[in-house]
Amino acid sequence: MSEKIIKAKNVISGRPTWQQTMLRISDPAKSIPFYTDLMGMTLIDKFNFPQYKFSLYFLTTLPKGESYTLIPGTQESHDYLWSMEGTTLELTYNHGTEKEDFKGYHPGNDDRDGFGHVAFNCDDVYAASENLAKAGVTFKKKPDEGRMKGLAFAYDPDGYWVGIVKRSKPGIIPNEFNFSQTMLRIKDPKKTIPFYESLGMKVIRSKNYGTFTNYFLVSSNAPSLGEYDLGSDDAKVKCSMLFHPVLELTHNHGTEEDDTFKHYNGNEDGRQGFGHIGFLVDDVYEACDSIRTLGYGFKKEPDGGSMKGLAFAYDPDGYAIEIIKRGGIDFGDVKA
């Protein structure tokens, strides 16, 4: 049975495109090799802010055979990052967290946590999981464990869950892995889905499992998939064969009826881990004027704080949504 999707009335101005998912990491010397050497991502850019004692690393899945010759941390790599059509995994490193006395970040998946996992698609989950295990990776769930066979969840160096998901048609995408999902739990799809549709996203699949429903959304710049039933097997196949990642929104039925219910958003004291997702727009100020009419407020207005021209809005569940100018701004980083 397909789900009825409530459509957004308008898309905000400035061609919003999903550009990043941010996770905090304790040690880039461990996390970057995990995502590059094991999961096949490419480090395309980095920002170093010694004055603020943090650094940012941006990784993405490039098509197999596509070479990347820019040096991360340069103006040239910044220009590429802020004009790209793909989606990155942003890893935020607060200097000093690699030391033994740091207690670690909160990876999610405890009671009322909103963030669930990131995921990568591959042709053979069993072979991929075996190779990861040989490389020393530990697992929350191996492919043959639990009720859902053929799906695995590995742990990254900070304990975040990393889904290993099977593509429906092997041999089509040549990459061993492609960055394929960010999962967030939501309280009320009638509010959240129109919010993300206003940011140009489109629901390409929905699946009702009885006690919960998953909705899969893609950015406005993802390839068109044509017309089909969102709850069909065809939708599952199309979703699994995308090279672009999907935003997976999980709704546990009944949460929308509890006025006191609220998910943790990953930025609370003692529960920091997941930080935000981000969108590129042509004009941050015009986009924020449109977002403001949605009524969910801002963590940071474009002219708030020391970094002008950058904003953080809230979605209906209180997740932070970064709004970034396409082409970038002067962030004040120390360049390579």
Description:
There is one protein chain. The chain is α+β, with helices and mostly antiparallel strands and 336 residues long. Helix content is 16%, strand content 31%. The protein has 6 helices and 16 strands. It has helices spanning 28-38, 75-81, 125-134, 189-198, 233-240, 284-292; strands spanning 17-25, 42-49, 54-60, 88-94, 115-122, 139-141, 152-155, 161-166, 178-186, 202-208, 212-218, 246-252, 274-281, 298-300, 311-314, 320-325. The chain has an 8-stranded mixed β-sheet, sandwiched between helices. A hairpin with a 5-residue loop joins strand 15 and strand 16. The chain is globular and about 50 Å long. The chain starts with 16 loop residues before the first strand and ends in an 11-residue tail after the last strand.
Major β-sheet profile? 8 strands, mixed
Order of helices and strands: EHEEHEEHEEEEHEEHEEHEEE
Give me the Rg, rounded.
19 Å
Helix content range of the residues, please? 10-25%
Number of strands: 16
**Number of alpha- plus pi-helical segments:** 6
List keywords for this structure.
eight-stranded mixed beta sheet, single chain, alpha+beta, 16% helix, 336 residues
In short:
This protein has six helices and 16 strands.
Topology, pairings included?
Elements: E1 17-25, H1 28-38, E2 42-49, E3 54-60, H2 75-81, E4 88-94, E5 115-122, H3 125-134, E6 139-141, E7 152-155, E8 161-166, E9 178-186, H4 189-198, E10 202-208, E11 212-218, H5 233-240, E12 246-252, E13 274-281, H6 284-292, E14 298-300, E15 311-314, E16 320-325
Parallel strand pairs: 1-4, 5-8, 9-12, 13-16
Antiparallel strand pairs: 1-13, 2-3, 3-4, 5-9, 6-7, 7-8, 10-11, 11-12, 14-15, 15-16
